[in-house]
Structures are given as structure tokens and as C-alpha cells.
Design goal:
Layout lengths: L2 H11 L4 E5 L3 E2 L39 H4 L2 H9 L2 E4 L6 E6 L2 H10 L4 E4 L4 E6 L5 E5 L2 E4 L5 E2 L9 E2 L2 H6 L30 H16 L5 H16 L7 H13 L4 H15 L2
Parallel strand pairs: 6-10
Antiparallel strand pairs: 1-2, 1-3, 3-9, 4-6, 4-8, 5-6, 7-8
Length: 279
């Protein structure tokens, strides 16, 4: 039994579905019977698990925790030729924030809640408990790998795995279509809902607003989407307890307008974020 297969079986025993990767960090290609989805299985790769073919076909969807499948002769051959081991984070109830360079790592340390961290060749994987849609390029050097995706297995890493935070979920939220924007006659809704405030000190809120302003100000591309995602992240944390004041929101709007956003778009993005969160 080679090292990759031993790693795969250990992962499977822990409830983490593995799959082999060939050179170039790519899954093994589908077998002839499954080429171009000729087998009729996994047409859009939206569901996990192998099709009727016993080979590791269909990319991330081939990942499995079944030791019999992993150790069967066709798969055993794939493990012998594999360059490395990958896994399906969503199948293990996890989300990986893939930070591809030092700048992305620095951004994460300033923006995201601490969690289990795994070093990579050029950056780090930050692993959270919980699943979400996967999305590449959510910001420079940052990919989200969870449902319908695979990530390289690079070891257990260090630190405790924390629950998936709203700020990470907001990264994959697409900016709403202009066709669904709120009427422009609406004023900016600011009032809280009278819920119990979960923040122990005003410092937590101040730090959150400062980080949000910094995120908008440092955006080098996709400013329109960055503004919406930032508003969504702020409201998901501070929008239900009445902490936010006109002054806080004015700081966010000023930062957005300094990047070329209009007052109209700021209002639209804020209202749409409120609507998305049901506030």
C-alpha cells in the first residue's frame, strides 16, 4: 500500500472524502465509458459520489469515504500514479479559504476570524466548519472551496476549526442585478431591530467598521461588488441589534464614494444587503 492510499484511507476513516490528483493538481480524467458524460452520470457534477464506473471519474464528485472503493484494484492503480491527495471539503462539512499569496494571507489575518490554518506552497488554507457555494477569485488571491470543489490535502494544520463566519459567506455573494435594485426614493434604512446586543464593548463595532472601510478603500477591482459584499458582512454582524448609527454608515458610504461609487449605488447596495439578510 503506497503513501497516498494510506493517507486517503485515514481521511476516509475521519469522514473526509479523498480523491487522487495527477500532475498539475488535476483529477484523473474520466474513463472512456464516462468521457463527455457518456455514462449519463453526474451531468453537471452537482452531486457527490462516483457513478456506476468503479474508476475515480468525475473530478471532485468521485471523492468517497468508502474504503472498499478506495482500495479496489482500479482505484489502487490511480493511487500508485497519483501526484498528491485531494479531498472534497463540502463532503466533510468544511469550507477552505484558499489564500494564494502573502498579500492574501495578510488580508485574511486582518479581516477573517482565526481558525485552523494549513500552510501551502505560496500561501495558506484557512479551514472553517460549515459549507457554502464554492467560488474562485472572490478577491485577489482568494478562492473559496467547499461544495462542488476539491482542495489538496496538506496536513491537519494548526489551530482550532471555528464555525463558518458571515464575512466568508459574503465573499461568494454576487452583486445583485440592477433589475432588482430598490427604488431610488428610499432613504437608507439604519435602525436596528431592538434585539439584544451581542457585542461586549464598542471596540468590537469600531474595529469592524474600520476593517470594512479599509476593505472598500483597498479594492483594486470589482469595486461595485466589493461594496455590496462589505455592506452585507457589516449588516450580518451588526445589523440586528441597533448598534449601527448614521455616523457608522456615513463612513462606509464615504469610503465607497471615494472609490467612484455614486450615492445612488451606495443606497441600493445597502438596501439590497438588508433585503438579503431579511432585516
Amino acid at each position: 500500500m503506497n503513501e497516498h492510499l494510506r493517507t486517503a484511507l485515514r481521511l476516509a476513516a475521519d469522514g473526509v472524502p479523498p480523491l487522487p490528483l495527477r500532475r498539475g493538481k488535476l483529477p484523473f480524467g474520466n474513463c472512456p465509458a464516462c468521457a463527455h458524460n457518456g455514462c449519463g452520470g453526474r451531468p453537471n457534477m452537482k452531486t457527490p459520489g462516483p457513478c456506476m464506473c468503479p474508476l475515480p471519474c468525475h473530478g471532485w464528485a468521485a471523492a468517497t469515504t468508502d474504503p472498499h472503493v478506495l482500495n479496489s484494484p482500479p482505484w489502487a492503480s490511480a493511487w500508485r500514479h497519483a501526484a498528491t491527495v485531494a479531498y472534497h471539503p463540502g463532503g466533510a462539512g468544511m469550507t477552505v479559504v484558499d489564500l494564494d499569496d502573502p498579500a492574501a494571507v495578510q488580508w485574511a489575518r486582518q479581516t477573517l476570524p482565526a481558525t485552523r490554518t494549513v500552510p501551502t506552497t505560496r500561501g495558506e488554507h484557512w479551514i472553517y466548519q460549515g459549507t457554502m457555494p464554492s467560488s474562485n477569485g472572490v478577491r485577489p488571491g482568494v478562492d473559496i472551496k467547499s461544495l462542488a470543489a476539491y482542495a489538496r490535502w496538506l496536513g491537519n494544520g494548526t489551530g482550532a476549526t471555528t464555525p463558518l463566519p458571515a464575512v466568508v459567506c459574503a465573499l461568494a455573494v454576487k452583486d445583485p442585478s440592477p433589475a432588482h435594485r430598490a427604488p431610488q426614493t428610499l432613504s437608507v434604512p439604519l435602525r436596528g431591530h431592538g434585539g439584544e446586543c451581542p457585542h461586549r464593548t464598542p471596540t468590537y463595532l469600531e474595529r469592524g467598521i474600520t476593517m470594512a472601510v479599509q476593505r472598500i478603500t483597498e479594492a483594486r477591482s470589482a469595486v461595485h461588488a466589493t461594496v455590496y459584499r462589505t455592506f452585507l458582512a457589516v449588516l450580518s454582524t451588526h445589523g440586528r441589534c441597533g448598534c449601527l448609527t448614521d455616523a457608522h454608515v456615513a463612513r462606509l458610504f464615504t469610503a465607497a464614494q471615494s472609490k467612484g461609487e455614486s450615492s445612488r449605488h451606495c443606497t441600493d447596495a445597502w438596501v439590497n444587503a438588508l433585503t438579503t439578510l431579511g432585516l
